[in-house]
Amino acid sequence: MYLAPGFPDDASMRQLMQLLHEEIGLPERKTLRLETAINLDLGCDGSDARHLLQALEERFELDLADFDSYRYFQPEGFDPSLKRRAKGRGTKLPLTIGMLYQAIRLRRWDTQELENL
């Protein structure tokens, strides 16, 4: 794994990168940037995403009350009721490393603020 120039190097980012490595794995030969989307670029989805969010909430004591998984991730498996609830949410927004890092620093998920980064 390579980190782009200017990539933050503090305790929060190191812990986040360790967590991402543990939960979803990080590519060996890809340069990671704050703009790298864990869902679109790194393929995090379904149960991996659910486990990652639980770990983020526990490890960093994040308040994820404003977080909507359907904005970023496809539901797990095939469940017609989930598909119906997700209707109109086909195109997923990027969930970036920078957004996660900023949420950790804020200790809460603020969708509007983080998506405007």
Descriptive notes:
- This protein is mainly α.
- It has one domain (7-33, 40-115).
- The protein is 42% helix and 3% strand.
- It contains five helices and two strands.
- The protein has helices at 11-23, 46-60, 80-85, 97-106, 111-115; strands at residues 2-3, 31-32.
- A two-stranded parallel ribbon has the order 1-2.
- Strand 1, helix 1 (11-23) and strand 2 (31-32) form a beta-alpha-beta unit.
- The longest helix has 15 residues, at 46-60.
- The chain is globular, with a radius of gyration of 14 Å.
- The protein starts with a strand and ends with a helix.
- The model has no long low-confidence stretch (mean pLDDT 89).
- It holds the Pfam family DUF1493.
- InterPro entries: DUF1493.
- This is DUF1493 family protein.
Task: State the secondary-structure class.
Answer: mainly alpha
Low-pLDDT stretches: none
Strand order of the largest sheet: 1-2
Count of β-strands: 2
The CA-CA distance between the termini, in Å, is 24 Å
Task: Give me the strand/helix succession.
Answer: EHEHHHH
Helix percent band: 40-55%
The number of domains: 1
Mean pLDDT: 89
Largest sheet: 2 strands, parallel
So what's the overall shape? globular
> Beta-sheet strand percentage?
under 5%
Q: Oligomeric form of this entry?
A: single chain
SS element count, helices: 5
Rg measurement, Å: 14 Å
